[in-house]
Design brief:
The structure holds two protein chains of two kinds. Chain A has a single domain, classed as ABC transporter involved in vitamin B12 uptake, BtuC (Orthogonal Bundle). Helices cover 76% and strands 1% of the residues of chain A. Chain A is built from 16 helices and two strands. A two-stranded antiparallel sheet of chain A has the order 1-2. By secondary structure, chain B is of the alpha/beta class. Chain B has one domain: Rossmann fold (3-Layer(aba) Sandwich). Chain B is built from eight helices and twelve strands. In chain B, the strands form three sheets. Chain B has a six-stranded mixed β-sheet with strand order 6-9-10-3-11-12, sandwiched between helices. A four-stranded antiparallel β-sheet of chain B has the order 2-1-4-5, covered by helices on one side. Chain B has a two-stranded antiparallel ribbon with strand order 7-8. The two termini of chain B are 23 Å apart. The chains are: A mainly alpha, B alpha/beta. At the A-B interface, helix 8, helix 11 and helix 12 of A face strand 8 and helix 4 of B.
Chain lengths: 393, 244
């Protein structure tokens, strides 16, 4: 049983990132005990949320072997749309959020159309968009004003927490639902007489998930206010269940639907997909649509966290961190390989580096250098593993 | 089962196929031979709906068939296995075999039934070289990939399978395995057209030989009626003593 478990662990593409995450957390916890406090961990989740959500969208584009360099500023533009809609037109929060998300969808359609139908390389299209969206953000915010976002529900996304009991309830429900789906599908496969995961492995997965979820909920439910009598601060940040729902949704789309299968196929061998009757252009456009739509959601989270939107929302290192998150998590830059959960694992790595190094009082310069090196390392592992499988044949 | 009559096809000024006629019978392997540029691939692509013909007709079971796309061809039970295989390396065997025609229950992919059917198909072809149908295609050898590509073609109740140089890139043992599989397809009641350069392959499995020379069908004979040398002569000069 131990052997099969080890085998399953070894085959998982996320292992280097997870191992790195454990090492980083250990080192930071030893160097700066404050790293492993409830307050800092809660901070970490909201810090990483925007990057993680954008990275999830990028996974779809990377799966096709394409790139979207404009995802960062696309999220900035959508955040700007949200802020303008809220502050200038006083529209209700749900309508403003919808307008922001639809803006993302339209951006994605435009990018995808230029790549798939006109045939401009995605690198060039999105580099142009990267520049243009910076301009659009400036125009939206009238040459660089900062618009504050005060709408309570939007602000709550990254700044408020679930009631502790609700955190436990949602966590428990998630673990039970996962266990039910895994065991039922394995039972159905066994009944049909086809290959099924061994129940020991399924059980191990469920236990690991339960321990992780329990640990996270427990720590985040700790009191993190300096003066609890004055203002209590505890519970899982609201943004966490939002990210979890997005992960489940997109994982379902990628692994369980024909659309997801076709996406992998186009990324693996476009000609084979075409001959199999798959509408390759439509798949490519859709990947950009999903990417930019997720960027818009990332933009809403960023606006919520900062309580404001300025022309640099989604700018500077957001895009590179997001690409880094996807690649560090194990998504291949060559297409055909990647999972949505990769973005979360990679996003955590990036957030931990950023957060831990800030605690150790390193400046922005050294943080950029270290994150850049980690990204190169991840891309190097990706390239080498690809070389090895090519040589196998 | 399949008969083509008077097929003409030009690319610009180049007249690639001239009044080509050919038959492929159920339960038979028909070898399509010819030198490079003789028009073998073009003929096959016309039958498979990738190219539209300029003139002539395609008959299936004696009825005229209209084939304008690979979908149409698949509708008539015609499947082509291409030389470059067209498999997705990052997908496993089942996923490749059902690519573009996945089975679904509602919105969700019906993995168990696809896996079952894929395993059954490999079973009827007596393929036992793959360890599990959940193996990614990237981990397979050249012969195994060819096997998967052929099994994919057979899965769809196909009646005519066209194989474009299936042994071109294979070693001796793998070639033997694939040829055995080709023979078994015909024995299972399919019509098979085998494009090949290799005379050993042609004589090992085919029942009939159709020879193209510069876009014209110069001979259609029973394999047992001709010799190696005569076929080579047909390929290189378009005619041979004793064959009309």
């Amino acid at each position: 049983m131990i052997g099969t478990m080890l085998g399953a662990i070894k085959r998982s593409p996320a292992v280097p990132a997870l191992a790195g995450l454990v090492v980083l957390c250990t080192v930071f916890s030893i160097m700066r005990p404050r790293f492993f406090t409830a307050g800092n961990l809660a901070n970490l989740t909201t810090q990483g949320a925007q990057i993680t959500v954008i990275a999830m969208g990028l996974v779809f584009v990377l799966l096709l072997g394409e790139i979207d360099l404009s995802a960062g500023f696309a999220s900035g533009v959508c955040a700007g749309v949200l802020a303008v809609s809220l502050a200038r037109y006083h529209l209700p929060w749900y309508f403003s959020a919808l307008v922001a998300v639809v803006t993302g969808t339209l951006i994605g359609f435009l990018l995808g159309y230029l790549v798939a139908k006109i045939g401009i390389p995605s690198f060039v299209v999105t580099l142009a968009a990267f520049l243009a969206f910076q301009g659009v953000a400036l125009l939206l915010l009238e040459e660089g004003k900062n618009i504050s976002v005060r709408e309570p529900i939007i602000v709550a996304i990254a700044n408020r927490n679930l009631y502790p009991w609700l955190g436990w309830a949602l966590g428990g429900f998630g673990v039970l639902a996962f266990a039910a789906v895994q065991f039922l599908s394995a039972a159905r496969r066994r009944a049909k007489g086809v290959t099924a995961e061994r129940w020991q492995i399924t059980l191990t997965k469920v236990i690991v998930l339960a321990v992780l979820t329990g640990g996270i909920v427990f720590v985040l439910n700790e009191e993190r206010s300096a003066n609890p009598l004055f203002a209590s601060l505890k519970g899982v940040p609201i943004v966490v269940p939002i990210v979890v729902v997005l992960v489940v949704l997109w994982t379902f789309v990628l692994r369980r639907t024909a659309y997801g299968r076709h996406l992998y196929a186009v990324g693996g061998n476009r000609e084979a997909a075409r001959r199999a009757g798959i509408n390759v252009d439509r798949i490519r456009i859709s990947a950009f649509v999903i990417c930019s739509t997720m960027a818009a959601i990332g933009g809403i989270i960023a606006a919520s966290r900062a309580n404001s939107v300025d022309p640099n929302t989604g700018g500077s290192n957001v895009l590179l961190y997001a690409v880094g998150a996807a690649v560090i998590g194990g998504t291949s830059l060559f297409g055909g390989k990647g999972r949505v959960i990769d973005a979360v694992i990679g996003g955590l790595v990036v957030a931990v580096i950023e957060n831990g190094m800030s605690l150790m009082n390193y400046g922005a310069g050294i943080k950029y250098v270290v994150t850049g090196i980690v990204l190169l390392l991840a891309a190097g592992v990706d390239a080498l593993s690809r070389k090895r499988t090519d040589a196998d044949r | 089962m399949l008969e083509v009559r008077g097929i003409n096809k030009s690319f610009g000024a180049v007249h690639v196929l001239r009044d080509v006629g050919m038959k492929a019978g159920t339960g038979e392997v028909t070898a399509l031979v010819g030198d490079n540029g003789a028009g073998k691939s073009t003929l096959v692509k016309c039958i498979g709906g990738i190219y539209s013909v300029d003139g002539g007709e395609i008959l299936i079971d004696g009825e005229p068939a209209t084939i304008h796309s690979p979908r149409d061809a698949a509708g008539y039970g015609i499947e082509i296995v291409y030389q470059d295989l067209a498999l997705c390396d990052n997908l496993d065997i089942v996923q490749n075999m059902f690519l573009g025609r996945e089975r679904k229950s509602g919105l969700v992919l019906d993995e168990p039934s696809m896996e079952q059917l894929a395993a059954q198909t490999l079973e009827t072809l007596a393929v036992r070289t793959v360890a599990t149908v959940r193996q990614p295609v990237s981990s397979l050898s050249g012969g195994q990939r060819q096997t998967v590509a052929i099994a994919k073609a057979v899965l769809w109740n196909s009646r005519l399978v066209i194989l474009d140089e299936p042994t071109a890139a294979l070693g001796v043992q793998q070639t033997a395995q694939v040829l055995e599989l080709v023979r078994r397809l015909a024995d299972n009641g399919l019509a098979v057209i085998l494009i090949s350069h290799n005379m050993n392959d042609v004589f090992a499995v085919s029942d009939r030989i159709a020879a193209l020379y510069l876009g014209q069908m110069v001979a259609q004979v029973k394999t047992t009626d001709v010799t190696h040398a005569q076929v080579v002569e047909l390929i290189t000069s378009g005619k041979s003593e004793g064959i009309k």
